[in-house]
């Protein structure tokens, strides 16, 4: 894989490549640290790591512009970091502390940022898909040329509400990009065992929605496909489906016995298809960076991640009174009925 990538002419500048390398590495190191803190008992509940899938969200964020919105499932830490949310706030939320994005009351699966237009973090499989269409509806209603990215998995792609959403999104030409992160497993169930028609993007044809399959281990391919999808949506042509073929190296969550696949299968993906190694290879073979420069980036990222872990452990637990806050909205948009 690395050789094939090196031979391909990259459709990105040196600065872009370095940025993608750094962004993917931040997610990788952050997730490794989250895994450690979980093992130490500092993170409770469920925790779904994104290791292996980094190129998907980094490639698509590279195609996004300010004002675009995004929504995803419970495997969400990478999405938050990629859209610019603060690692300290994300890690503190994982440890259930006051300094977290949901003041320690949401945890891994329930974080939001109005500023970055990140709308969660959803534990119910596929529930975020209609929300993604709703965000696109809002963008269109306000007359903005912004788009919404609705990320979901291969397992979620078999859920009924996805198709209700496709129908409405196509009917109303909503600027939503449905991103199917096909990591080949839904918990312990492989794609082969869960569907007779594993080409998920092609299902859009039934609704008149265009789409394509993308190599999700290649950040440049993801960015290119993302740009095409974004241009389609911004031109008012309605929704678009990107089925991004990817792979998660870790278990479904931290409590996965991993009996449904072999160690060799995981090892092969790590060795031959790793998205971070692929960019590293382009940077090195193209003489865009030296080993030492890349090591410095790694050092810088590790410092950011260590700082987030420190912040997360030093931030206090939420006060008891917090139990009664953030339940009902304080302000409601009343303009329409006023
Ligand atoms: C409606 C609903 N059904 C079942 C579950 C349990 N569940 C949690 S994650 C998951 C698998 C989803 O897999 P996929 O959509 O491929 O996403 P991935 O975990 O691979 O990112 C299931 C069945 C749930 N959370 N919600
Ligand atoms: Mg999956």
UniProtKB/TrEMBL annotation:
It holds the Pfam family E1_dh. The keyword Ribosomal protein does not apply. It comes from the Bacteria. One of its GO terms (biological process) is pyruvate decarboxylation to acetyl-CoA. Its EC number is 1.2.4.1. InterPro entries: DH_E1, PDH_E1_Alpha_Subunit, Pyrv_DH_E1_asu_subgrp-y, THDP-binding. One of its GO terms (molecular function) is pyruvate dehydrogenase (acetyl-transferring) activity. Keywords: Oxidoreductase, Pyruvate, Thiamine pyrophosphate. It catalyses: N(6)-[(R)-lipoyl]-L-lysyl-[protein] + pyruvate + H(+) = N(6)-[(R)-S(8)-acetyldihydrolipoyl]-L-lysyl-[protein] + CO2. Residues 23-320 form the Dehydrogenase E1 component domain. Its cofactor is thiamine diphosphate. NCBIfam families: PDH_E1_alph_y (TIGR03182). The pyruvate dehydrogenase complex catalyzes the overall conversion of pyruvate to acetyl-CoA and CO(2). It contains multiple copies of three enzymatic components: pyruvate dehydrogenase (E1), dihydrolipoamide acetyltransferase (E2) and lipoamide dehydrogenase (E3). Heterodimer of an alpha and a beta chain. This is Pyruvate dehydrogenase E1 component subunit alpha. It comes from Pontivivens insulae. The lineage of its organism: Bacteria, Pseudomonadati, Pseudomonadota, Alphaproteobacteria, Rhodobacterales.
């Amino acid at each position: 894989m690395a050789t094939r990538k090196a031979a391909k002419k990259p459709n990105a500048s040196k600065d872009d490549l370095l940025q993608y390398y750094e962004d993917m590495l931040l997610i990788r190191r952050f997730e490794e640290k989250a895994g450690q803190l979980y093992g130490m008992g500092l993170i409770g509940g469920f925790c779904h790591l994104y290791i292996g899938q980094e190129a998907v969200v980094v490639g698509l964020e590279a195609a996004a512009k300010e004002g675009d919105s995004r929504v995803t499932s419970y495997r969400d830490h990478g999405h938050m970091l990629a859209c610019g949310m603060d690692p300290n706030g994300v890690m503190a939320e994982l440890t259930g502390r006051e300094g977290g994005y949901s003041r320690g009351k949401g945890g891994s699966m329930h974080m939001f940022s109005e500023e970055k237009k990140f709308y969660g973090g959803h534990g119910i499989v596929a529930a975020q898909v209609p929300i993604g269409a709703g965000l696109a509806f809002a963008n269109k209603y306000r007359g903005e040329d912004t788009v919404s990215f609705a990320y979901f998995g291969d397992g979620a792609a078999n859920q009924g509400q996805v198709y209700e959403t496709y129908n409405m999104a196509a009917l109303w030409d909503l600027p939503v990009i449905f991103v199917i992160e096909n990591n080949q497993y839904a918990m312990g169930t492989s794609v082969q065992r869960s569907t007779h028609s594993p080409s998920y993007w092609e299902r859009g044809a039934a609704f008149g929605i265009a789409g394509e399959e993308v190599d999700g281990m290649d950040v440049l391919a993801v960015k290119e496909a993302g740009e095409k999808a974004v241009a389609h949506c911004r031109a008012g042509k309605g929704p678009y489906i990107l089925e991004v073929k990817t792979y998660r190296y870790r278990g479904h969550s931290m409590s996965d016995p991993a009996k449904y696949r072999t160690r060799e299968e995981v090892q092969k993906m790590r060795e031959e298809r790793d998205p971070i190694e692929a960019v590293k290879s382009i940077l090195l073979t193209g003489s865009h960076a030296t080993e030492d420069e890349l090591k410095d980036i790694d050092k810088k990222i590790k410092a950011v991640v260590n700082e987030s872990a420190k912040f997360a452990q030093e931030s206090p637990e939420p006060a008891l009174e917090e139990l009664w806050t953030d339940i009902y909205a304080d302000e409601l948009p009343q303009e329409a009925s006023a």
